[in-house]
Amino acid sequence: MITRDQVPSLYSPIYDEFMLSAFAEESQINPQVFQSIDDSTKEYKVNSLSGLGVWTSAEEAEDGNYEDPVEGYPKTFTQAKFRKRFGVSFEAVDQDEYALLKKEEDVVAMGRGARGKVELDTASVLSDGFAATCPDGQLLFDTDHDKNSEETSTHYDNLLSGAFSHDNLEAAETQISNNLIDPTGLPIDPPAGALIVFPPALRGAVARVLSDRALEQPGTALRNINRFAGQYTPVEWRYLATKFGGSDTAWFIIFKSLNMLKIVWSVHPHFTSWIDWAKEIYYFSGRMLYDCGATDWRGCFGSTGA
Protein backbone atom coordinates (compact mmCIF):
# COMPACT_ATOMS: atom_id res chain seq x y z
CA MET A 1 0.00 0.00 0.00
CA ILE A 2 1.28 3.49 -0.90
CA THR A 3 0.94 6.23 1.69
CA ARG A 4 1.51 9.96 1.39
CA ASP A 5 4.73 9.65 3.36
CA GLN A 6 6.15 7.71 0.43
CA VAL A 7 5.38 10.44 -2.11
CA PRO A 8 8.84 12.11 -2.03
CA SER A 9 10.61 8.89 -2.96
CA LEU A 10 8.23 8.52 -5.91
CA TYR A 11 8.63 12.07 -7.12
CA SER A 12 12.38 12.56 -6.52
CA PRO A 13 13.37 11.24 -9.99
CA ILE A 14 10.98 13.78 -11.51
CA TYR A 15 12.52 16.59 -9.47
CA ASP A 16 15.98 15.40 -10.45
CA GLU A 17 14.95 15.67 -14.08
CA PHE A 18 13.49 19.14 -13.46
CA MET A 19 16.70 20.42 -11.87
CA LEU A 20 19.07 18.98 -14.45
CA SER A 21 16.94 20.19 -17.36
CA ALA A 22 17.04 23.70 -15.88
CA PHE A 23 20.80 23.39 -15.46
CA ALA A 24 21.06 22.86 -19.22
CA GLU A 25 18.06 24.83 -20.52
CA GLU A 26 20.14 27.88 -21.46
CA SER A 27 23.23 27.05 -23.45
CA GLN A 28 26.21 27.12 -21.14
CA ILE A 29 29.23 28.91 -22.52
CA ASN A 30 31.94 27.58 -20.21
CA PRO A 31 32.21 24.19 -22.05
CA GLN A 32 33.08 26.12 -25.22
CA VAL A 33 35.95 27.93 -23.50
CA PHE A 34 37.15 25.63 -20.68
CA GLN A 35 38.53 22.13 -20.71
CA SER A 36 36.33 19.98 -18.46
CA ILE A 37 38.03 17.37 -16.28
CA ASP A 38 36.43 14.78 -14.00
CA ASP A 39 38.54 13.96 -10.96
CA SER A 40 37.52 12.37 -7.65
CA THR A 41 40.59 13.35 -5.62
CA LYS A 42 40.58 16.07 -2.97
CA GLU A 43 43.00 18.19 -5.00
CA TYR A 44 43.85 18.14 -8.68
CA LYS A 45 47.40 19.30 -9.36
CA VAL A 46 48.73 20.47 -12.71
CA ASN A 47 52.34 21.05 -13.62
CA SER A 48 54.38 20.74 -16.79
CA LEU A 49 57.84 20.20 -18.16
CA SER A 50 59.05 22.23 -21.08
CA GLY A 51 60.20 20.65 -24.27
CA LEU A 52 63.76 21.01 -25.46
CA GLY A 53 64.89 24.12 -27.29
CA VAL A 54 66.58 24.72 -30.62
CA TRP A 55 69.20 22.16 -31.56
CA THR A 56 72.81 23.28 -31.26
CA SER A 57 75.86 22.42 -33.31
CA ALA A 58 78.02 19.45 -32.39
CA GLU A 59 81.56 18.41 -33.17
CA GLU A 60 82.53 15.06 -34.58
CA ALA A 61 83.39 12.45 -31.97
CA GLU A 62 82.56 14.78 -29.08
CA ASP A 63 79.91 14.36 -26.40
CA GLY A 64 77.55 17.16 -25.33
CA ASN A 65 74.39 18.98 -26.37
CA TYR A 66 72.41 17.76 -23.37
CA GLU A 67 69.54 19.91 -22.10
CA ASP A 68 67.24 19.48 -19.12
CA PRO A 69 63.56 20.33 -19.41
CA VAL A 70 62.36 23.24 -17.28
CA GLU A 71 59.61 22.70 -14.74
CA GLY A 72 56.56 24.89 -15.16
CA TYR A 73 54.46 26.63 -12.54
CA PRO A 74 52.25 24.33 -10.43
CA LYS A 75 48.53 24.92 -10.17
CA THR A 76 46.29 23.18 -7.63
CA PHE A 77 42.54 22.92 -8.09
CA THR A 78 40.65 22.43 -4.83
CA GLN A 79 37.12 21.37 -5.62
CA ALA A 80 34.64 23.16 -3.36
CA LYS A 81 31.10 22.09 -2.55
CA PHE A 82 28.10 24.16 -3.58
CA ARG A 83 24.48 23.31 -2.85
CA LYS A 84 20.92 24.59 -2.49
CA ARG A 85 18.06 23.09 -0.48
CA PHE A 86 14.41 23.54 0.34
CA GLY A 87 11.87 21.69 2.48
CA VAL A 88 8.16 20.91 2.49
CA SER A 89 6.31 20.21 5.75
CA PHE A 90 4.13 17.17 6.27
CA GLU A 91 1.22 19.52 6.85
CA ALA A 92 1.66 21.05 3.40
CA VAL A 93 1.32 17.58 1.94
CA ASP A 94 -1.50 16.60 4.28
CA GLN A 95 -3.56 19.62 3.31
CA ASP A 96 -2.70 19.69 -0.37
CA GLU A 97 -1.97 16.38 -2.02
CA TYR A 98 -0.20 18.12 -4.89
CA ALA A 99 1.97 20.44 -2.81
CA LEU A 100 5.09 18.56 -3.86
CA LEU A 101 4.29 18.89 -7.52
CA LYS A 102 3.69 22.61 -7.01
CA LYS A 103 7.29 22.81 -5.79
CA GLU A 104 8.44 22.02 -9.32
CA GLU A 105 9.27 25.70 -9.86
CA ASP A 106 11.56 25.67 -6.82
CA VAL A 107 13.46 22.70 -8.19
CA VAL A 108 13.79 24.30 -11.60
CA ALA A 109 15.10 27.43 -9.89
CA MET A 110 17.71 25.28 -8.13
CA GLY A 111 18.94 24.08 -11.52
CA ARG A 112 19.12 27.64 -12.82
CA GLY A 113 21.05 28.66 -9.73
CA ALA A 114 23.58 25.87 -10.24
CA ARG A 115 24.07 26.81 -13.87
CA GLY A 116 24.45 30.47 -12.95
CA LYS A 117 27.07 29.70 -10.29
CA VAL A 118 29.22 27.68 -12.70
CA GLU A 119 28.91 30.29 -15.45
CA LEU A 120 29.75 33.14 -13.06
CA ASP A 121 32.82 31.38 -11.68
CA THR A 122 34.24 30.37 -15.04
CA ALA A 123 33.55 33.75 -16.67
CA SER A 124 35.23 35.51 -13.75
CA VAL A 125 38.49 33.71 -14.54
CA LEU A 126 38.63 35.91 -17.64
CA SER A 127 37.00 39.03 -16.17
CA ASP A 128 39.30 39.00 -13.15
CA GLY A 129 42.35 38.19 -15.25
CA PHE A 130 43.34 41.86 -15.38
CA ALA A 131 43.64 41.93 -11.59
CA ALA A 132 44.15 38.31 -10.45
CA THR A 133 47.34 36.29 -10.81
CA CYS A 134 47.91 33.03 -12.65
CA PRO A 135 50.44 30.35 -11.53
CA ASP A 136 53.53 32.29 -12.67
CA GLY A 137 52.70 35.06 -10.20
CA GLN A 138 51.80 37.60 -12.87
CA LEU A 139 48.31 38.77 -13.75
CA LEU A 140 46.64 36.37 -16.13
CA PHE A 141 46.72 39.16 -18.75
CA ASP A 142 50.02 41.00 -18.31
CA THR A 143 52.93 42.51 -20.19
CA ASP A 144 55.82 40.75 -18.45
CA HIS A 145 55.37 37.00 -18.13
CA ASP A 146 58.75 35.34 -17.58
CA LYS A 147 60.00 33.02 -20.29
CA ASN A 148 60.05 30.18 -17.75
CA SER A 149 60.64 29.53 -14.05
CA GLU A 150 64.44 29.64 -14.49
CA GLU A 151 64.96 32.32 -17.15
CA THR A 152 63.30 35.48 -15.86
CA SER A 153 65.07 38.10 -17.95
CA THR A 154 62.98 37.47 -21.07
CA HIS A 155 59.30 38.46 -20.95
CA TYR A 156 56.17 37.87 -22.99
CA ASP A 157 53.05 40.00 -23.30
CA ASN A 158 49.46 38.69 -23.55
CA LEU A 159 47.70 41.95 -22.62
CA LEU A 160 46.02 43.23 -25.78
CA SER A 161 45.24 46.90 -26.38
CA GLY A 162 42.19 48.91 -27.33
CA ALA A 163 38.53 48.39 -28.07
CA PHE A 164 37.50 45.54 -30.32
CA SER A 165 37.92 46.62 -33.94
CA HIS A 166 39.36 45.49 -37.24
CA ASP A 167 42.63 47.35 -36.66
CA ASN A 168 43.00 46.16 -33.08
CA LEU A 169 42.30 42.56 -34.06
CA GLU A 170 45.00 42.85 -36.71
CA ALA A 171 47.39 44.28 -34.12
CA ALA A 172 46.45 41.45 -31.75
CA GLU A 173 47.42 38.86 -34.36
CA THR A 174 50.90 40.38 -34.61
CA GLN A 175 51.20 40.49 -30.83
CA ILE A 176 50.12 36.85 -30.56
CA SER A 177 52.70 35.82 -33.17
CA ASN A 178 55.42 37.56 -31.15
CA ASN A 179 54.33 36.26 -27.75
CA LEU A 180 52.77 32.81 -28.18
CA ILE A 181 56.12 31.22 -27.32
CA ASP A 182 56.82 28.04 -25.38
CA PRO A 183 59.07 27.98 -22.27
CA THR A 184 62.13 27.12 -24.39
CA GLY A 185 61.63 30.12 -26.67
CA LEU A 186 60.18 28.23 -29.63
CA PRO A 187 57.06 29.70 -31.29
CA ILE A 188 53.75 27.91 -30.76
CA ASP A 189 51.73 27.87 -33.97
CA PRO A 190 48.37 29.54 -33.16
CA PRO A 191 45.90 26.65 -33.35
CA ALA A 192 43.07 26.96 -35.86
CA GLY A 193 39.64 27.88 -34.56
CA ALA A 194 40.64 30.55 -32.08
CA LEU A 195 37.75 31.88 -30.00
CA ILE A 196 36.89 35.55 -29.72
CA VAL A 197 35.03 35.73 -26.42
CA PHE A 198 33.06 38.88 -25.64
CA PRO A 199 30.11 40.33 -23.66
CA PRO A 200 26.74 41.09 -25.34
CA ALA A 201 27.58 44.81 -25.64
CA LEU A 202 30.18 43.93 -28.30
CA ARG A 203 27.82 41.76 -30.36
CA GLY A 204 27.51 44.32 -33.15
CA ALA A 205 31.20 45.20 -33.25
CA VAL A 206 32.25 41.55 -33.46
CA ALA A 207 29.66 40.73 -36.13
CA ARG A 208 30.79 43.67 -38.26
CA VAL A 209 34.46 42.70 -38.06
CA LEU A 210 34.03 38.95 -38.60
CA SER A 211 31.24 38.84 -41.21
CA ASP A 212 31.95 37.75 -44.78
CA ARG A 213 31.43 41.25 -46.19
CA ALA A 214 32.72 43.30 -43.28
CA LEU A 215 33.71 46.90 -43.75
CA GLU A 216 37.23 46.18 -42.67
CA GLN A 217 38.25 49.67 -43.78
CA PRO A 218 35.61 51.99 -42.29
CA GLY A 219 35.16 55.23 -44.17
CA THR A 220 36.12 53.85 -47.57
CA ALA A 221 33.94 52.76 -50.45
CA LEU A 222 35.71 49.40 -50.71
CA ARG A 223 33.87 46.29 -49.62
CA ASN A 224 36.47 43.64 -50.23
CA ILE A 225 36.06 40.16 -48.85
CA ASN A 226 37.03 40.04 -45.21
CA ARG A 227 40.10 37.98 -44.39
CA PHE A 228 38.87 37.53 -40.81
CA ALA A 229 35.72 35.71 -41.94
CA GLY A 230 35.84 32.08 -40.86
CA GLN A 231 39.14 32.49 -39.03
CA TYR A 232 37.62 32.95 -35.58
CA THR A 233 34.71 31.48 -33.65
CA PRO A 234 32.72 34.25 -31.92
CA VAL A 235 31.54 33.31 -28.43
CA GLU A 236 29.14 35.74 -26.77
CA TRP A 237 29.08 35.27 -22.99
CA ARG A 238 26.59 37.31 -21.00
CA TYR A 239 28.39 36.56 -17.72
CA LEU A 240 31.34 38.67 -18.92
CA ALA A 241 29.13 41.77 -18.85
CA THR A 242 29.34 44.59 -16.32
CA LYS A 243 25.97 43.44 -14.98
CA PHE A 244 27.61 40.26 -13.71
CA GLY A 245 30.81 41.80 -12.38
CA GLY A 246 32.73 41.86 -15.64
CA SER A 247 33.09 44.52 -18.33
CA ASP A 248 31.07 45.59 -21.36
CA THR A 249 34.26 46.47 -23.25
CA ALA A 250 36.72 43.65 -22.49
CA TRP A 251 37.38 41.03 -25.18
CA PHE A 252 39.51 37.91 -25.34
CA ILE A 253 41.20 35.63 -27.84
CA ILE A 254 41.33 32.09 -26.44
CA PHE A 255 43.02 29.04 -27.97
CA LYS A 256 40.95 26.38 -26.24
CA SER A 257 42.88 23.46 -27.74
CA LEU A 258 45.93 24.49 -25.66
CA ASN A 259 43.83 23.61 -22.55
CA MET A 260 45.06 26.42 -20.33
CA LEU A 261 41.57 27.10 -18.89
CA LYS A 262 40.15 24.22 -16.88
CA ILE A 263 37.11 23.34 -14.80
CA VAL A 264 37.69 20.32 -12.58
CA TRP A 265 34.61 18.42 -11.44
CA SER A 266 34.54 16.09 -8.45
CA VAL A 267 30.75 15.88 -8.55
CA HIS A 268 28.52 17.19 -11.32
CA PRO A 269 25.18 18.76 -10.31
CA HIS A 270 22.83 16.16 -8.88
CA PHE A 271 19.68 16.06 -6.81
CA THR A 272 18.62 14.06 -3.70
CA SER A 273 15.70 14.00 -1.26
CA TRP A 274 15.03 12.62 2.20
CA ILE A 275 12.55 12.73 5.10
CA ASP A 276 13.20 14.18 8.56
CA TRP A 277 10.71 12.22 10.63
CA ALA A 278 11.46 14.18 13.81
CA LYS A 279 10.66 17.54 12.22
CA GLU A 280 8.18 16.05 9.75
CA ILE A 281 9.72 17.75 6.73
CA TYR A 282 10.45 16.50 3.24
CA TYR A 283 13.86 17.84 2.14
CA PHE A 284 15.19 18.32 -1.38
CA SER A 285 18.85 19.14 -2.04
CA GLY A 286 21.03 19.95 -5.03
CA ARG A 287 24.80 19.54 -4.78
CA MET A 288 28.00 19.88 -6.87
CA LEU A 289 31.77 20.06 -6.31
CA TYR A 290 34.19 21.80 -8.68
CA ASP A 291 36.98 24.34 -9.10
CA CYS A 292 38.11 26.32 -12.14
CA GLY A 293 41.02 28.49 -13.21
CA ALA A 294 43.92 29.07 -15.59
CA THR A 295 46.96 26.80 -15.50
CA ASP A 296 49.08 29.05 -17.74
CA TRP A 297 48.77 32.40 -19.53
CA ARG A 298 49.75 30.88 -22.88
CA GLY A 299 46.70 30.48 -25.05
CA CYS A 300 44.85 33.35 -23.38
CA PHE A 301 45.02 36.93 -24.66
CA GLY A 302 42.77 39.73 -23.45
CA SER A 303 42.06 43.44 -23.67
CA THR A 304 40.13 45.60 -21.23
CA GLY A 305 38.75 47.43 -24.26
CA ALA A 306 40.19 50.71 -23.01
Explain the layout of strands and helices.
Blueprint: H1 7-25, H2 30-33, E1 35-38, E2 43-46, E3 75-78, E4 80-89, H3 90-95, H4 99-102, H5 104-127, E5 145-146, E6 155-156, H6 166-179, E7 194-198, H7 203-210, E8 232-236, E9 251-254, E10 261-276, E11 281-294, E12 300-303
Parallel strand pairs: 1-10, 7-8
Antiparallel strand pairs: 2-3, 4-11, 5-6, 7-9, 9-12, 10-11
Characterization of this structure:
The protein is α+β, with helices and mostly antiparallel strands and 306 residues long. It has one domain (4-46, 75-303): Alpha-Beta Complex (phage-related protein like fold). It has 7 helices and 12 strands. Strands 1-10-11-4 form a 4-stranded mixed sheet. The chain has a 4-stranded mixed sheet with strand order 8-7-9-12, covered by helices on one side. A hairpin with a 4-residue loop joins β10 (261-276) and β11. α1 (7-25) packs parallel to α5. The protein is globular.
Strand content range: 15-25%
The strand count comes to 12
Mean pLDDT: 82
Shape: globular
Q: Count the helices. How many?
A: 7
CATH class: Alpha Beta
CATH topology: phage-related protein like fold
Major β-sheet profile: 4 strands, mixed
Low-confidence stretches: 1-11
Number of domains: 1
CATH architecture: Alpha-Beta Complex
Q: Strand sequence of the main sheet, in spatial order?
A: 1-10-11-4
Order of helix and strand elements from N to C terminus: HHEEEEHHHEEHEHEEEEE
In angstroms, what is the radius of gyration? 25 Å
Please give the share of residues in helix.
25-40%
Q: How would you concisely characterize the structure shown here?
A:
The protein is of the alpha+beta class.
